[in-house]
Amino acid sequence: MAASIRRAVLKACSVPANVSILCREHQLTCSVRSLSASQRWMSRVSPICHQQDSMPEPTPLPVADTREATLNATLQHEDYFGVKDLANLRDLFNARVHLGHNSGLRHPSMSPYIFGSRQGCDMIDLDQTLPLLCQALNVTGHVVYRGGMLLFLSRQTQVLPWVERLAREVGEYSHCRPWRTGTFTNASSLFGTLPIYPELCIFLGTQDTVFETHRGVIEASKLLIPTVGVVDTNCDAEPITYPVPGNDDSPAALHFYMGLFRSVVLRAKARRKADGVE
């Protein structure tokens, strides 16, 4: 009797085989689900962690933007090439820059720059000449600093070899021979090719003859080519972009002008090389 009761109790307490298998499958399924959920969570978080660990390096500015920034910075400088140290009023006076022509030859456009007359000759106001000269030198320096081409011009026979030598020394160009009409305005027909115009024309004398303006001045003004010109009291200063009132006949004055332009061009090219503006 007791043995039969014990067997009945054990049979009731035992778990069927299929139930145990289902339990094991349920545990395995739960573990797989938890693993896949953790993988999905890690896949969502890992890109963020990767971005936080490795931040992108800042991209450097292009070379063109750096060059443009350097060029713009020079324009903010009041005297980047030190042209104010090249000349003063005493230097202008000693070079006879103040001496003009006979008062009867005075051009109306030069009246604002005349201080007075002495023994029938006009005297140029050097207080106006000095800042205008510094402005012309500063413009020349900035044109050269940006790689622009200069053209020195004069029709005076006595300074012809000096102007050509000046252009060779600074690595620029000169034109001291008779001007052929249409050299600027009709260059493609005269020379059979597209012309390369200078960025700045520097006239050490703005007259072709005693009563005629240099044809290069007229053609440059028609094509809007900037010009720097030494204008005497008998010259027309209106077509010149940057006029410099001064004596254009005295050898001392002409040597003085050429020395200033030589210095500023060489300074500008040296600064261009030092700043790496190519």
Average the pLDDT over all residues and give the rounded result: 83
The CATH C-level name of the largest domain is Alpha Beta
User: What amount of the residues lies in strands?
Assistant: 5-15%
Share of helix, binned: 40-55%
What spatial order of strands do you see in the largest sheet?
5-4-6-7-8
Low-confidence stretches: 17-26, 28-53
What is the end-to-end distance? 115 Å
What class, by secondary structure content?
Answer: alpha/beta
How many DSSP H or I helices? Answer: 9
Named at the architecture level, the CATH assignment of the largest domain is 3-Layer(aba) Sandwich
CATH topology of the largest domain: Rossmann fold
H/E element order: HHHHEEEHEHEHEHEEH
The count of DSSP E runs of length 2 or more, i.e. the number of strands, is 8
Task: Specify the overall morphology.
Answer: globular
InterPro entries: Ribosomal_uS2 (IPR001865), Ribosomal_uS2_bac/mit/plastid (IPR005706), Ribosomal_uS2_CS (IPR018130), Ribosomal_uS2_flav_dom_sf (IPR023591)
Organism: Elysia chlorotica (Eastern emerald elysia)
GO biological process, one term: translation
Keywords: Ribonucleoprotein, Ribosomal protein
Characterization of the model:
- Belongs to the universal ribosomal protein uS2 family.
- Pfam families: Ribosomal_S2 (PF00318).
- Keywords: Ribonucleoprotein, Ribosomal protein.
- One of its GO terms (molecular function) is structural constituent of ribosome.
- This is Ribosomal protein S2.
- The protein is an alpha/beta fold.
- The protein folds into two domains: 2-53; 64-275, Rossmann fold (3-Layer(aba) Sandwich), CATH 3.40.50.10490.
- 50% of the residues lie in helices and 12% in strands.
- The chain is built from nine helices and eight strands.
- It has a five-stranded parallel beta sheet with strand order 5-4-6-7-8, sandwiched between helices. A three-stranded antiparallel beta sheet has the order 1-3-2.
- Strand 2 (114-118) and strand 3 (121-124) form a beta hairpin.
- Helix 5 packs parallel to helix 9 and helix 6 (160-170) packs parallel to helix 9.
- The radius of gyration is 42 Å and the shape is globular.
- It starts with a helix and ends with a helix.
- The model is unreliable at 17-26 and 28-53 (pLDDT under 50).
